[in-house]
From TrEMBL:
A Pfam family recorded for this sequence: PAS
GO MF term set: ATP binding; phosphorelay sensor kinase activity
Residues recorded with modification Phosphohistidine: 292, 721
Keywords recorded for this protein, A-Z: ATP-binding, Cell inner membrane, Cell membrane, Coiled coil, Kinase, Membrane, Nucleotide-binding, Phosphoprotein, Transcription, Transcription regulation, Transferase, Transmembrane, Transmembrane helix, Two-component regulatory system
A GO biological-process term: regulation of DNA-templated transcription
The encoding gene: arcB
Species lineage: Bacteria, Pseudomonadati, Pseudomonadota, Gammaproteobacteria, Vibrionales
Domain annotation HPt: ranges: 682-775
Histidine kinase domain sequence ranges: 289-510
Name listed for the protein in its UniProt record: Aerobic respiration control sensor protein
Coiled-coil spans in chain: 77-149
Catalysed reaction, written as an equation: ATP + protein L-histidine = ADP + protein N-phospho-L-histidine
E.C. number: 2.7.13.3
GO CC, one annotated term: plasma membrane
Post-translational modifications reported in the UniProt record: Activation requires a sequential transfer of a phosphate group from a His in the primary transmitter domain, to an Asp in the receiver domain and to a His in the secondary transmitter domain.
Amino acid sequence: MKQIKLLAQYYVDLLVKLGLVRFSMLLALALVALAVIVQVGITLVLNGTVHDTDIVRSVFFGLLITPWAVYFLSVVVDQLEESRQRLSKLVSKLEEMRARDMELNRQLTENITQLNLEIEERKRAEEAREEAMQDLENEVYQREKAQVELAEQTALLRSFIDASPDLIYYRNEKGQFSGCNRAMEDLTGKKEKELVGLTPWDVYREDIASKVVETDQQVFDSNVSLTYEQWLEYKDGRKAYFELRKLPFYSRDGRRLGLVGFGREITERKRYQDALEKASRDKTAFISTISHELRTPLNGIVGLSRMLLETRLSEEQLGYLRTIHVSAITLGNIFNDIIDLDKSDRSRLELMPQPLDFPDFVSEIENISALMAQQNGLRFTLDRLTDLPPAVKVDATRLRQILWNLVGNAVKFTKQGAVNVTVSCDIEDDMAHLQFDVEDSGVGIPQEEQDKIFAMYYQVKQGEDNLHAVGTGIGLAVSRKLARLMNGDITVDSEVGEGSNFTVTLEVPICEVVSNKEKVTSEQSPLHILLVEDIELNITVATNLLESLGHSVEVARSGQEALDMYPQSEYDLLLLDIQLPDMTGFDIAKTLRDSGEALPPLVALTANVIKDKTEYINNGMDDAISKPISVSAVAEVIERLALQCPVATEAAEVKRRKKPGNEMLDKLLDLEMLTSYVDIVGPEPVFQSIKMFEDLMPEYIQILDSNMTAKDQDGIASEAHKIKGAAGSIGLKHIQKVAQKAQSPELPAWWENIADWVDEIKEGYVQDLEVLKQWLEDYSKEV
C-alpha cells in the first residue's frame, strides 16, 4: 500500500512536472509500448510467433486507448491534485490551527502558571493578612493592656503624690499653676482645679509671694535647680517652715515647659536646729564664762607661785610651792582641753604659728615636766638626741599643750620609776622634722586598747589597784587633733606592766626669731601705765611684774573709774581687762577713741587663749595679752608699741599719738597701696570707689547667702572671688584675705570653715569701711 501510494505520488508529480501534453505523449508511448509488449507476449505464448499485424494491431490498440487513459488519468490526477491541494490547504489550516492551538496551549500554560502564581501570591497575601490581622489584634490588645496599666500607674502615682505630705506643684513659664497635689491644696485652701491658672501673687501673701516669684525667676534665668528654705502660711493662719526645691522641666523635644516644685515641712527640724544652736551658744558661753571665772584665780596662782619661786624659801616650802605651781599649770591644761573640745565640736580648731625660740621652749618643757615628776616622786630626764634649730615657726601654745598632756599622763600612770623625754630633729629643705618621745615605766596599755585611747572620752580599763587611772578622757583626743592640724601625728607603743612610749612627730618651717630674753633684758624707759583690772589677785601679779621692770602703775578697778582717771594723768600705756563689773574693755577703748584725743597704746588683757587678735583690733585695741601675764609678753608689747620711736620733740610726740592703732590699720588696710594711690589721684576717687563698694556689697552678700543656702560650692567661690577683687581695689586687706580663703575650696576643712569666713566678711566689712574712711579723712588732712 505504501508502494502504491508512492507510485501514485510519483505519477502525479511527473504529470505536474511534464505538463499534460508531454505527459500524454509520454503516456501514449508508454501505453503503445505496453500494448505491443503485451500483444507480443500473449501472441508468442499462444501462437509461438509474432506477426506484423499483431504489432500494428497492438500499436493501434495502444493509440486507441491512449486518449481515454490520458483523460481518465488526467481527470484522476486533476481530482487528486485538487484533493491534494484541498488536503494541503486543509493541512495548512490544520497546521495553522495546530500552531494556534500550540500558541493557545502556551498562553494557556502561561496563564495557568501565572494564575498558579497569583493563587500562591493570594494565598501568601491571605496568610500575611491573617498574620497582620493577628498582629493587629495583638497590638490592639497590648495597647489596651498598656492603657489599662498606664491608667493604673497614673492612678497609683497620683495616689502616691496625693498621699505625700510634701508639697508638689507645677507652674508654667508664665508663673501660673498647672497642677498640684493634695498637700498643696491643704496649704493654699484651694482645689487643684481652682488653683490652675493662678499665680503666686493670687495665692500667697505679698511678702511670701515676692520670695516665691524671685526664686522662680532664678530657676528660669539659670536653668538649674534651686533649694532654699522659707516660711509659708496655711489658709487657717498656721505658719510652717519648708525646705523648697525647684527645678525646670522640659518636653521631649527639649522645650522648657515650666518648673516643678517640691516642699518638705521642716518646722520641727528648724526648731531643733535653733534649739541646738542656742544650746551650742549657751555651752560656748558657759565654757567661756567658767573658763574665765576659773582662769582668773588660777592665773593669779600661777603668777604669784612663779614669783615666789624666785624668792628665798626653805626646801619644804619650795616643794609645796612647786606642787602648787605645777598643779595650777596642769589645771590650766585641762581648761585648754575643754575649750579645744568645744572648738573641735564646732570645727573651729585653728593654729596661729609664730616664730619660737626652740631651745628655750625645750628647756621650759624640761623644767615644768621635772617639777611634775618630782611632785609624784619620779625621776625625770630630757635628752636632746640631735642639734636643735634655734627657731621654728609653730603654734607654741598648742605644742606645749600636746607635750604637757603626754607628760602629765606619763606621770599619772607611773607609780614608780622614771619618765623620759627625748627630742630629735631632722632638717631638710628649711623644714624641721621634729620628734618627741615621752616614755614611762608605768602600767602600760593593753594591745587591744591602743587603737581606742585617742577616741573622745575613752579611758583604758585599769585594775583596781591602779589608783591613777582617772581623768577626763579628752586629753589624748584633743592632742592628736592638734598634732594632725600641725602636719604631724601621735603614735603609741606600749606593753602591759612595761610602760608606754608616745611619739609626737611634726613638720614645721625653720625661721629666725629675736630671743625673748634679749627683749626682756634690753633697756626700757620707765613708763606710766594705767592698769584696769577688778580681780585683786591679778592686780597684785601684774603690778609686781610691771614694777619689777621699772615702770610705775596706777590701778582702776572698774571701767568708769578708768575713764575718770584717764584725763587726770599722762599715761604711756593702758592695760584693759576685757571683763569688768560695769563694762568691757572694748567699751572703754570705744569711749576713748570716740573722744578724738590722741591716745597711748591700748592693750587688752584676757583670760582666754588668744588665737586671733583680729577681734581685739577691730574693737579698738592695739594688741592683746593672755593672762597670766608673762614678762616676755609685756616687754615685747611695751617695746613695740609704747617705745616704738624716741621722743624727740613734743610735736613729734603729738604726731605719733595722732596715729593710734597703727597695728590695727596694718591688719585691716593695705596702707602701702592706699597711700601711693591717694598721693597720685587724690582722696576723692578713693571716696567714690568706697561708695561704689558700699553699693555693690549688699548684692554680693545676698548672692553669697543664696549660694550658701543651696550649698553651691562653685557659686560661693565665684561670689567670694568678686568680693576679694572689690575689697582689694579699695585696700580692705583683711576682707580681701578672708575672701581669698572663701574662694579656695581646695583648702583643708573648707566646708567646715566657710560659714565662719562668710560671717566674718558680712560682719567685718562695714567696720573696716569705717576704719578706711577715718584713715582717708585723717590722711587727706595731713596731705
